Each structure stands twice: as structure tokens, then as C-alpha cells.
Amino acid sequence: MKFDLHTHHDRCGHAESGIRDYIEAALGAGMNVIGISDHSPYFESTEDHPNPRTAMAKSEFPRYIAEVLRLKEEYKDRIEVLLGLETDYFPEHMELHRKVYSQYPFDYIIGSVHWSGGIKIFDRKRWKGLTPEQITEHKDQYLDLIRQSAECGMFDVIGHMDALKANYPSLSQVPSKVLDEVLKVIAERRIAIEVNTSGKTKECGGWYPADDILERALYYGVGITFGSDAHRPDRVGDEWEQVRLRLKEIGFKEWVFFRRRQKQIVTL
Ligand SMILES: [Zn+2]
Ligand SMILES: [Zn+2]
Asked: Domain range holding 180?
């Protein structure tokens, strides 16, 4: 049972090709389940399309849902297409988003922290001139936002859990005072973290999260899912088999995906 819950397409303004191309790529990669999870609009904005290179327009949202549902039906005998979404976690705007999302039949929603301390996580400048103590603070502030995103009850999947390291690879070696607490909360809330193979497209290389976090996630009983975070069709299912084998080596027995917000367990 091969699945990939994290894919984008051209609506977000920084991914290539349309939804159908990602479904076809999934078929070509021998997948059984493909989740479409483009970047949620900024519903809190007064503008229709405040960040055209980051996320789809508000007015595009109903068309996005309708297109995924149409393709779900069209492809149902060949592959299961899931209606998903990736949402930026901004604590102050989540109630508004929750209301909007509740009108649609989502299979799952990925919550991702892309901003921490008012700075984009991938911004290289955020690391300039920091003391070791400040670096630890940045890391723990980011992880604490992930904890809050798990507690807000809106998400099925935590996106790219240690992506703050993307352009600052040595962050993985910085100890965290809050990581274990965050993993405990995620496990209690029965949320999954994804192994996201898009780290290879950034300076840090490899996957999110790093193996030591996966080992601790296993210890706390956190569920695991798979996400390529494909922004081009040829990355759908990228390194799926390597991830499956690594998870087995670490000691996981199963992983999960979501259908109509219900966890589906798949043997590794
Ligand atoms: Zn993106
Ligand atoms: Zn993301």
C-alpha cells in the first residue's frame, strides 16, 4: 500500500503543473493513494490573493476543492485521490480557518509552521550573529509553535517537523529542552508526523525529521505518515521505499494515512 499525502500544484504560485499531472505521476510511481494538499489561502487577509507566490487565492479555494473531488471520482478505479490541504500555523487565525474548512469534506489537513518569531523558517538571515543560547531559543520557539499546532485540534498531520534546519543544517545538533514534550503532545492527540523527503532540495539534505527525532517519536508512540512535498510531478513518492525501509530499521511496525479524517493504518 503506497501513499503520499503531501503534494502541491500550480495554484500556489511556486509549484509546477496541475493536479491531474500529480495523479498521473502517482500512477506511474505505482502508488495506491495520492493526497492533494496545496497551500491554504490566507483567509485572514482583506485581499483575495495577498501572496501569489506562496498560496492560492481565496476565490480559488472552492475551485480547488471541486477539482480534487472531480478527479477523485474520475480516477476512483485506478487510484484513491484524497482531498487534503497544507495550512500555515498562525495561532491567531486558526479559528477563522477552522470555520472555512468545516464546510468541505477533507480527508486530512497538514499543519505546518512556516513562520517562527515573525521570520520565515527558510530565511538564512535569521541565523546571522546569534549566540548559541539564542539559537537554542529559536529552535525551541519553533518547536513550541508545533506543540501549539498539535494542541489546536485542527490537524491530522504535522508537516516537516524539523524544517527550521533547512538552511542551517547544524541546528540538528543543537539540544532542545522542549522536543520530548512536543512529541508527547503529538502522540496524545493521535496526530501523525510526516517523513517529508523534500529536505533533499534544501541545504540540510536528507529528510524531515532527522532519524534521532524519529527514534524519539517511536518511543512516545507518535504515528508516522509519508509526504514527498512534491512541487513538481516527478517528485511524487520520491524515496518512498527508502523511507519505508528506514522506518522498519528504526523499529516502526506501521504507518498511517487519513481518509475522511480517520486514521488508516498500513503495515510497513
Ligand atoms: Zn510550497
Ligand atoms: Zn510546508
From this structure: 3-267
